Amino acid sequence: MAKFPELAAKRVMVTGAASGIGYATAERFANEGAHVFLVDRDGAALSAAKGKHPGFKGSFVADVASEGDVKASFAAMDGLLGGIDVLVSNAGISVRSNFVDITYEQWKRVMDINLGGMFLTSREAAIRMKKQKAGVILMTASSNGTEGHRWYADYNASKAGVILLMKTMALELAPDVRVNCVCPGYVLTPMQRAEYTDEMLAATNEGIPMKRHAEPEEIGALYAFLASDDARYFTGADIRLDGGETAGLYS
């Protein structure tokens, strides 16, 4: 059931849309009546996802770390939908590593996708939104970008960069274009499942006041709200959705 009727027929691009937070967000916008354009680098997963909802109007296989791929994905969306109203720049990767074991190749790849991809997609969206004097740009940052976390130095640094990129864009693009980011804590996504055993998940849950991971759909619901008219005074905000994880010491 749609909760934000003003999102009906909005043209929405979601990156990293084939699974996890990205898919849940794309589905939520489609349920609101939006025309959703899916972008993901995994062609097989994207093919499987794009037929799951009639609101998924188009898709494009792209690596957000590639300027050429990003430009081509926006050109494809322009051709299909005539432009963009909302960008959810979500695509990202993480690799669990001790700091001293991170290769420079890994560091660059994480930065290129997690921060470079946010820059490239947001720039293309902003160019279009400034011309039409309206639009919303939303980014997936992380609670890891707000404080130190072991074993994710490259990921943490990239997400901290996303937060400051968002704030700078919000200043430059106001008042016509709103820019915000969501900082999820632990979310039960395929990426999380791949890195954590059941025992690790259970141990992590014990350190979260809400005693569980977030569901991807909860992140998608927040994105829908931030794109809605109810959030029309939100810009430059980094919003934590972490079950109290970063509120303070908990035991």
The CATH topology label is: Rossmann fold
Spell the H/E element sequence.
EHEHEHEHEHEHHHE
Helical fraction equals 40-55%
The average pLDDT is 96
What count of helical segments does DSSP give?
A: 8
Name of the level-1 CATH class: Alpha Beta
Q: How would you name the CATH homologous superfamily?
A: NAD(P)-binding Rossmann-like Domain
Layout of helices and strands, plus pairs?
Blueprint: E1 11-15, H1 20-31, E2 35-40, H2 43-50, E3 56-61, H3 67-81, E4 86-89, H4 104-132, E5 135-140, H5 153-173, E6 177-184, H6 190-195, H7 198-206, H8 216-227, E7 238-241
Parallel strand pairs: 1-2, 1-4, 2-3, 4-5, 5-6, 6-7
Helix pairs in contact: 1-8, 3-4, 4-5
